[in-house]
Amino acid sequence: MGRSGAGRFPAHWPVRVRAFLRGELAPVPARPAATVLLLRDGADGIEVFMLRRRATMAFAAGMYAYPGGAVEPGDASPAHAAVRETYEEAGVLLAGPAGGDGVVTEVPGPGGPPAFDAFLEHHGLTARTGLLAPWARWVTPEWEARRYDTWFFVAALPPGQRCRNASTEADRTAWLRPADALAYGMLPPTVATLRALLPYAEAGGRAEDVRAAAAAAPVPGPVMARAAVEGGDVVVSWPGYEDFGGRLPAAPREPRP
């Protein structure tokens, strides 16, 4: 869905979008979530850490994405969830000694309590949410059965730390330049957030420049797809991202949801 045009939408959209527009499909609540554009300064400029979701995943199967996931009950905020998910899926720990302002250069081994906050406490650490800056916020369309209200954060890879594929949901990980990453299959939010990195990459900016610019910018508002009937056709659009939209193909004859 990073590519626009009819036929690029999920196969189930013609039925679900039309049912939604007829008032037959009530939106499910969007679950809070967080994801992180983890950046580093590569030999040829800024690189972003990405993972490819396994083809067996129920959501965004086979798509390239960033480390992230739903906000859990123990998370104090979406930013805290982003710190936890970055550790759980990329092996990078945005944390430092409690009572200080530094960040660890070596990630503690897997020993200790399994719960993230208990793990931090066990090692005398605290989450450094200040290392993150809001980059974007996207909400899954109202007609989807699985919905998320996702905060996208940017963070620079801490000195001394390395990424690894620590996720059971990914079959591949890679550091990619934003322009190169756009060649892979991904959902519209991933495409949009990568595109927003291009000016920094093309200007020779550094990872910390991106984080600092995001921290100084206004808090991003939510972006969500809309659907309407135009001339008898159903048209899907993302405000501000016209190339993501298009006209849906005719709905197959299926029972109403």
Provide a compact summary of the structure:
This protein has 257 residues and is an alpha+beta fold. The chain has helices at residues 13-21, 78-90, 116-122, 178-181, 188-195, 198-202, 207-216; strands at residues 31-42, 45-53, 64-65, 68-70, 95-97, 125-127, 133-139, 148-156, 170-176, 222-223, 226-230, 233-237, 246-247. The chain is 22% helix and 27% strand.
Structural class: alpha+beta
Count of extended strands = 13
- Morphology: globular
Q: Which spans have pLDDT < 50 for at least 5 consecutive residues?
A: 1-7
How much is the radius of gyration in Å?
Answer: 19 Å
Distance between the termini: 23 Å
What proportion of the residues form beta strands (DSSP E)? 25-35%
Proportion of helical residues:
10-25%
Q: Overall mean pLDDT score?
A: 89
Order of helix and strand elements from N to C terminus:
HEEEEHEHEEEEHHHHEEEE
Biggest sheet character: 8 strands, mixed
- DSSP summary: helix tally: 7
Layout of helices and strands:
Elements: H1 13-21, E1 31-42, E2 45-53, E3 64-65, E4 68-70, H2 78-90, E5 95-97, H3 116-122, E6 125-127, E7 133-139, E8 148-156, E9 170-176, H4 178-181, H5 188-195, H6 198-202, H7 207-216, E10 222-223, E11 226-230, E12 233-237, E13 246-247
Parallel strand pairs: 1-8, 7-10
Antiparallel strand pairs: 1-2, 1-4, 2-3, 2-9, 5-6, 7-8, 11-12, 12-13
